[in-house]
Design brief:
This protein has a single domain (about 5-115), classed as Orthogonal Bundle (Arc Repressor Mutant, subunit A). It has helices at about 5-10, 15-25, 35-45, 50-65, 90-115, and strands spanning about 30, 70-75, 80-85. The protein is an alpha+beta fold.
């Protein structure tokens, strides 16, 4: 599969889903922005690609809602980066988002399994 095919197979994230994916990623431990985007890409089998223009506004929004906390630290390569950590409020929100997301997935699956009425 070439680069163009990979790009065509990427899926745009449904509004609100990015927040849930960021919170889920941060459950595995504190991470900087690039690490978050890489974790989402890798764990989705290269299907979900989070662009910088979407990631950082989402992180700032999550910070304003107090679902994540950020602090400056040094990366392994000795560069300063903002590391994000999920808060107790963020964990509560993730549980709520995950429950709602599962209901949506189940509802869509039910519709997709339904045979068309041939009358």
């Amino acid at each position: 599969m070439g680069q163009d095919d990979t790009y065509k197979n990427r899926i745009e994230l449904i509004q609100g889903t990015l927040d849930m994916l960021i919170l889920r990623t941060l459950q595995w431990g504190p991470q900087h922005g690039y690490g978050i985007s890489q974790a989402i890409r890798i764990n989705s089998g290269d299907v979900l690609q989070v662009e910088t223009g979407s990631l950082y506004p989402a992180l700032h929004r999550l910070e304003r809602k107090q679902w994540v906390r950020a602090e400056w630290k040094q990366t392994e390569s000795k560069q300063r980066a903002k590391f994000y950590r999920i808060t107790a409020l963020g964990k509560k929100q993730l549980l709520s988002d995950h429950t709602r997301w599962q209901r949506v997935v189940d509802a869509i699956a039910a519709i997709m399994k339904t045979e068309p009425d041939r009358s």
